[in-house]
Amino acid sequence: xxxxxxxxxxxxxxxxxxxxxxxxxxxxxxxxxxxxxxxxxxxxxxxxxxxxxxxxxxxxxxxxxxxxxxxxxxxxxxxxxxxxxxxxxxxxxxxxxxxxxxxxxxxxxxxxxxxxxxxxxxxxxxxxxxxxxxxxxxxxxxxxxxxxxxxxxxxxxxxxxxxxxxxxxxxxxxxxxxxxxxxxxx
Length: 186
Description:
Blueprint (H helix, E strand, L loop, with lengths): L1 H7 L5 E4 L2 E4 L21 H6 L3 H8 L3 H11 L3 H42 L3 H29 L3 H27 L4
Antiparallel strand pairs: 1-2
């Protein structure tokens, strides 16, 4: 039996037919990876390049979490699935906060350098303008701290995102029940 397979199929998956060798064509349809794995970045690099600082956090928090919750419940209407996705929302926000912190720290160092060097050059008006920008930046840094504390305590803007996601998830579960059970006649 093994000899029969060896004679029909060579080492490289080739079929031997009356002395001729031809490759075997395999018609294979793979399941698309995106069916199971969401590859959408939190914020792609082009967004971070154009939206810096606290605006990146606000942009994320303004996302449509209700639709995401609804869609996720259609995939898996399970409580553990919902809890995992809520944790992912929080982790994504933490990542964005860290990116914003890095950006703010870099900008603060740059402003401090320019204040010191322009002060030495005697550019009083420019130094005052830079100090004003530094004050604005410090206010943004304080707001980022507030958002981070709200994230840790599940309140404020973070709570809005989570409530929105939960509402969408519940709507999805209700939709499944209505479509599958309530529409059936007894």
